């Protein structure tokens, strides 16, 4: 079991956590993993899921990703290495790159259904290069020259490959950058081109899309920022101006991204690969190491310690290896490529341990993070996202009108959308329905309901607009990868504190009903209630509600036994409406907060006037907004 030091509420009044707590968690997570070591450490096999790539690839992934955690632990200890981490990983590097070793790592695709031309070990080549860069003095420089040559050859093989046109562009680049930094051969590599390609996806304010598709998510923190940071540290001599520009973007990113974390350490449950968990922290540490963080050092430590403490409170890595999931194990919310070693990318979130104990991030007193004491609305206009954090209830909500991870156009076959991108709303304390509940997909969604009872999916976005408290988008309802003929939905969200006014202009056959879903509240048995046009669900003090303002007929709640990544059961408040015309307007008030359900107070939070397709909202806070759903989104309403 994880054993933590006593809390220090003098130096860290908000979390009680110090550097010693971070070291204890890292040592426990690494120690637990080493219990499953192969004889020479290169292929540790953990309990858990094995993907189609096979056990050997999963074991390589475990070694490579755990090195991301071991590397800053080694670097920060400055030669003091009581766990023998440097020697342990050095022996694994020796065995893994020796073609005659029974623990030799794969170079190409493995498993029952290998990827052709693009192979999973490329990812671990990048992770090993990242770790070797951090620990060069204590690992790489101490390897015998024949071992160095074998490691270099293994990395070079992957540095020369072509990969997916998303964050993967940085994986061969990372291997190349390390090889160049230690004077090894890099002929045939295209790292500068790959990095330029990723940097061309910059949206502004340090935010990037994950490739040319509409994908903005935590991959900004998992991969894009830490690997760009490491690239520029190793290859900054190629273009000093570009490196300086990157650091400006990293600084800007730490400002807005820091506002997406709840005071209790909960991160937004949004996007894919969420099993990486503490990897969300990597950019904050990178910015501290480079001296460009927008946060004061004590605020960085408060934010990071809050996140790590929150995950350990939920049992992550407390009594065994890291599992695939968010709090506990939850396979339905994971991707098919996630095997037993995948969660250890969490190690990149321990990058701060590379800083010495006397660095201000560890030595300064803890300071508030941006969402501790004040409300914060963070608008990412190029990404179509608005985050609303309220200090009174400690919740961060995300309105999503720009990220779908689908690309265009909709193809034949299975639906391309994903529950972690297709919803209108996400939060730090709820998670979307997955598994069986994703088939119905009620939460965070507006769906046309065909006469046969099947509900539409959101699918790829066809246009979006974001400004101030308003974000809007348009989509063509679809199912089974095919657009529903003659249908379209334009949606505008107006945000005010814990509230979202969600307005729809729906086009489609009059015999298609409509359903609107709020947040899924998870727990062992959520409470729920309804009024004529209002419904709510509550658990553990958290309450989600949806109130029909215009165009809704009735309310109800839906229960799902399979729950979400946050809890074993889930309840979703929903609204329903029959439609009698080909075009109709529907307005609903959504709320996610803490306390008792109070439908009367929710209704009094906003005054709404609907005139044709124009919706005007006057909030109790004094804020106002007006949108014309017919013209608000720059889109002509046709799927072609």
From TrEMBL:
Domain of life: Bacteria
Domain DUF2264 residue range list: 18-368
One Pfam assignment: DUF2264
UniProt name for this protein: DUF2264 domain-containing protein
Taxonomic lineage: Bacteria, Bacillati, Actinomycetota, Actinomycetes, Micromonosporales
């Amino acid at each position: 079991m994880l054993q933590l030091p006593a809390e220090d509420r003098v130096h860290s009044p908000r979390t009680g956590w110090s550097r010693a707590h971070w070291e204890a968690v890292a040592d426990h997570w690494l120690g637990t993993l080493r219990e499953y070591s192969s004889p020479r450490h290169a292929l540790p096999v953990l309990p858990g899921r094995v993907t189609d790539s096979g056990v050997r690839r999963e074991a390589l992934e475990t070694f490579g990703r755990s090195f991301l955690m071991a590397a800053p632990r080694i670097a920060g200890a400055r030669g003091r290495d009581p766990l023998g981490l440097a020697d342990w990983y050095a022996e694994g590097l020796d065995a893994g790159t020796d073609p005659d070793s029974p623990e030799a790592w794969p170079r190409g695709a493995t498993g029952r259904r290998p990827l052709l031309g693009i192979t999973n070990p490329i990812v671990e080549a990048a992770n090993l290069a990242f770790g070797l860069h951090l620990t060069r003095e204590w690992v790489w420089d101490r390897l015998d020259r024949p071992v160095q040559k074998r490691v270099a050859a293994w990395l070079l093989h992957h540095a020369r490959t072509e990969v997916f046109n998303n964050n993967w562009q940085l994986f061969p680049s990372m291997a190349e950058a390390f090889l160049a930094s230690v004077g090894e051969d890099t002929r045939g590599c295209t790292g500068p081109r790959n990095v330029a390609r990723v940097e061309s996806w910059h949206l502004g304010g340090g935010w990037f899309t994950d490739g040319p598709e509409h994908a903005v998510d935590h991959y900004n923190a998992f991969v894009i920022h830490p690997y760009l940071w490491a690239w520029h540290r190793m290859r900054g001599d190629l273009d000093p101006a570009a490196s300086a520009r990157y650091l400006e973007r990293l600084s800007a990113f730490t400002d807005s991204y820091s506002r997406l974390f709840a005071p209790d350490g909960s991160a937004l449950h949004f996007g894919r690969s969420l099993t990486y968990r503490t990897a969300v922290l990597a950019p904050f540490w990178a910015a501290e190491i480079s001296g460009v963080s927008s946060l004061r050092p004590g605020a960085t430590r408060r934010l990071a310690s809050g996140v790590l403490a929150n995950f350990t409170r939920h049992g992550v890595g407390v009594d065994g290896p890291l599992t695939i999931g968010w709090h506990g194990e939850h396979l339905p919310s994971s991707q098919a490529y996630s095997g037993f070693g995948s969660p250890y990318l969490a190690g990149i979130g321990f990058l701060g341990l590379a800083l010495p104990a006397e660095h201000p991030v560890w030595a300064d007193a803890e300071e508030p993070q941006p969402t501790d004491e004040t409300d914060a609305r963070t608008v990412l206009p190029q990404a179509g996202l608005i985050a609303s954090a309220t200090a009174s209830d400690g919740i961060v909500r995300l309105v999503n009108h720009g990220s779908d991870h689908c690309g265009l156009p909709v193809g034949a076959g299975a639906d391309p959308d994903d529950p972690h991108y297709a919803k209108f709303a996400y939060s730090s304390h709820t998670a979307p329905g997955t598994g069986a509940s994703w088939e119905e997909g009620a939460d965070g969604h507006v769906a046309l309901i065909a006469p046969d009872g099947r509900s539409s999916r959101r699918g790829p976005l066809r246009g979006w607009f974001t400004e101030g408290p308003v974000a809007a988008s348009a989509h063509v309802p679809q199912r089974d990868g095919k657009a529903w003929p003659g249908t379209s939905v334009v949606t505008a969200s107006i945000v005010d504190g814990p509230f979202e006014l969600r307005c729809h202009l729906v086009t489609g056959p009059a015999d298609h009903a409509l359903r609107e879903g709020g947040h899924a509240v998870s727990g062992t048995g959520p409470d729920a209630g309804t009024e004529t046009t209002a419904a709510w669900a509550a658990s553990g003090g958290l309450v989600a509600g949806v109130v029909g303002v215009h165009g809704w007929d009735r309310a109800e709640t839906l229960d799902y036994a399979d729950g979400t990544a946050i809890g074993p059961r889930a309840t979703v408040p929903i609204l329903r409406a029959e439609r009698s015309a080909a075009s109709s307007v529907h307005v609903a008030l959504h709320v996610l907060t803490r306390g008792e359900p109070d439908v009367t107070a929710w209704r009094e939070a906003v005054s709404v006037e609907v005139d044709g397709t124009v919706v005007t909202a006057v909030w109790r806070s004094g804020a106002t907004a007006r949108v014309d759903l017919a013209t608000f989104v720059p889109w002509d309403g046709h799927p072609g």
